[in-house]
Amino acid sequence: MNLHQALTVLPGVGPKSAEKFRKLGIETLEDLLLYFPFRYEDFKVKNVLDLEDGEKAVISGQVVSPANVQYYGYKRNRLRFTIKQGEVALAVNFFNQPYLADKVELGGTLAIFGKWDKTKASLTGMKILAQVEEDLQPIYHLTQGVSQASLVKLIKLAFDQGLDLLLEENLPQVLRERYQLMPRSQAARAMHFPQDLAQYRQALRRLKFEELLYFQLQLQLLKAENRDFKKGLALDWQEEALEARKAALPFKLTSAQERSLGEILQDMKSGLHMNRLLQGDVGSGKTVVAGLAMYAVHTAGYQAALMVPTEILAEQHFESLSQLFPDLRLGLLRGSMKAAEKKDLLSRVESGQVDFIIGTHALIQEGVNYHRLGLVIIDEQHRFGVEQRRILRQKGENPDVLMMTATPIPRTLAITAFGDMDVSIIDQLPAGRKPIVTRWIKHEQLPLVLDWLDQQLQVGAQVYFISPLIEESEALDLRNAVALEQELAAHFGVRAQVALLHGKMKAEEKDKIMQDFKDKKVQILVSTTVIEVGVNVPNARVMVIMDADRFGLSQLHQLRGRVGRGDQQSYAVLVANPKTESGQKRMKIMTETTDGFLLAEEDLKMRGSGEIFGTRQSGLPEFQVADIVEDYPIVEEARKVASQIVADPSWRQDSNWSLLAEHLTEKDYLD
Ligand code: ADP
Ligand code: MG
């Protein structure tokens, strides 16, 4: 056996179930071994006297009253009995699981997982445990057709067959010794079947280090390539023409825009390969800076491409660049183009009759050939990882690359997360902007907000509603959003058209709904958080975020940034009843400042509280087990080690590091 074999080599896995596992990203045996739980349930037996009200825990004790099942109505029923743990007697209730009565034997001992109700001194049972269960039960992300039980069974099977022993070590001995890291196969086993918390933590530490070290190595290798003079373009742009363009703008650039543009221009002029990240809060004026950089490239006799995540954003940029540069030849590449139209555009691009080309990922993927491509700008970079950056530089003449992001990331973190790139920051908004007014309300005050929304709708405002995020389950996430849409539609009736946008929709569907919203055919747009950011609908002036305390500050700031794009006053309403101090603090800070960088710094400080969901959409790279914010100390250590390793030009020949080189080559990160 080898671990690259498909899952179907396991007994009991046919093509049909393999298809289901594929949806979880599990295709090979190795994928299965490395498909880690995202959390654990603690099944260690607790003392009932130590439990807090509402806590879920395992209680064990002796059954001291016979099981009694009561029925109500058509199907509902309750199984009741009493157990004694030490000297404490407590009532146990199971709802609608009458068959469990068979397991309840007077005088016998049971371990029950349930929820403790302190005032009633009773446990609402969720599960009767077999006598010898592990203390920590892994919980996996699931998909339609794959249950916890079936996943656990398959993983157990793989480990029982000893497949974990085939997992190859990918960290050199010296590093494992230096940091006391357990072997890879041992770590994988401990993730699925931890003996105790301490062992799990050690396993996690090892896997995080592994993941972050490889990430840092990739970054450092890219960076080293960027420093190679022979490999970059030296663009000789025309100073005077550029100055004239700037002077013709309807406004004066802010000093932060000037500084960033200067940094970009300098990079482009030098023979170094530019790989720069342009950061600026929503509305800080990145587009103009990008446009001027593109124009500079044009004066040097090269083409420039602007790549964005969605078609609707592509259109938006096409429009604003057409306004800024009416005399240039702009092309918009769209997926929905007719074949003839597309062919015509592509041939004009190839023969150099197009100066700026704007589009989605198709710009670099399909057979798009450029006449002389000098600059590629990538907007909202968060789905453009280090891997894509590497592919891009292998295209054509190795054009300069500028990435733009509206997510404010503190500089220190940006350097670790995007170590191969230089960073420019527009940390200043153009004068005269109206800050978004942010209010925090409790759920019970929602009716007041709905009344106020009616007034807003009457004066023509449009509204975003963000439905609560349920990280564990996409299905629940969606159900929540649908429910919210229906409630709002029922509430507003003919007074507003309500539409729903969610992550499971096809790109065209999403674009269609966004277009309807832009065209004011829809007044209230309900969406899950997994949808695109960056779309500009100036008339959308109100953003309501449900269960706002589930989000980190940066994410809330991103969401809020979708309003406040027109001249009218905009509002953000955070609906939340936070249970923790940190949750309350976050809500309060949001109402007090609109400074994205300040919020990002606060976000960093408050991370690790464990109650904020993932780094998704925060603009930072995502990992399987590591979190670039929470694991910052490991990130830093990995960065140090990686740069020490690659600092020696002949590191690949060093027997200490050959293992790393091998794995990087296998993944195509090295030639
Ligand atoms: P973002 O950084 O979010 O992409 P945009 O580039 O879309 O921001 O700019 C937002 C708005 O601000 C645009 O309407 C743009 O014309 C305007 N703008 C950009 N720079 C300035 C400036 N220096 N002074 C005044 N308005 C500006
Ligand atoms: Mg923008």
CATH superfamily of the largest domain: P-loop containing nucleotide triphosphate hydrolases
- In CATH's first tier, which class of the largest domain applies? Alpha Beta
Strand order of the largest sheet: 11-12-10-13-14-9-15
Helix content: 25-40%
Instruction: Give the total of beta strands.
Output: 21
* CATH topology term of the largest domain: Rossmann fold
Oligomer: single chain
* Domains, number: 5
Which structural category do the helix and sheet elements fall into? Answer: alpha/beta
pLDDT < 50 stretches: 609-617
Q: What is the averaged pLDDT score?
A: 87
Largest sheet: 7 strands, parallel
* Ligand inventory: adenosine-5'-diphosphate, magnesium ion
Q: Name the CATH architecture of the largest domain.
A: 3-Layer(aba) Sandwich
Distance N to C terminus: 28 Å
Report strand %. 15-25%
Describe what you observe in this structure.
- The protein is of the alpha/beta class and 671 residues long.
- The chain folds into 5 domains: 1-39 and 148-167, DNA polymerase, domain 1 (Orthogonal Bundle); 44-129, Nucleic acid-binding proteins (OB fold (Dihydrolipoamide Acetyltransferase, E2P)), CATH 2.40.50.140; 173-228 and 631-671, no CATH class; 231-426, Rossmann fold (3-Layer(aba) Sandwich), CATH 3.40.50.300; 437-593, 3-Layer(aba) Sandwich (Rossmann fold), CATH 3.40.50.
- Helices cover 38% and strands 18% of the residues.
- It contains 22 helices and 21 strands.
- It has a 7-stranded parallel sheet, sandwiched between helices.
- Strand 3 (68-72) and strand 4 (76-85) form a beta hairpin.
- Helix 5 packs across helix 6 and helix 8 (255-269) packs parallel to helix 9.
- It is globular.
- The two termini are 28 Å apart.
- 38% of the residues are buried.
- Residues 609-617 have low confidence and may be disordered.
- Bound molecules: adenosine-5'-diphosphate and magnesium ion.
- Adenosine-5'-diphosphate (ADP) is lined by residues 251, 253-254, 257, 280, 282-288, 406, 430.
- This is ATP-dependent DNA helicase RecG.
- Residues 267-426 form the Helicase ATP-binding domain.
- Belongs to the helicase family. RecG subfamily.
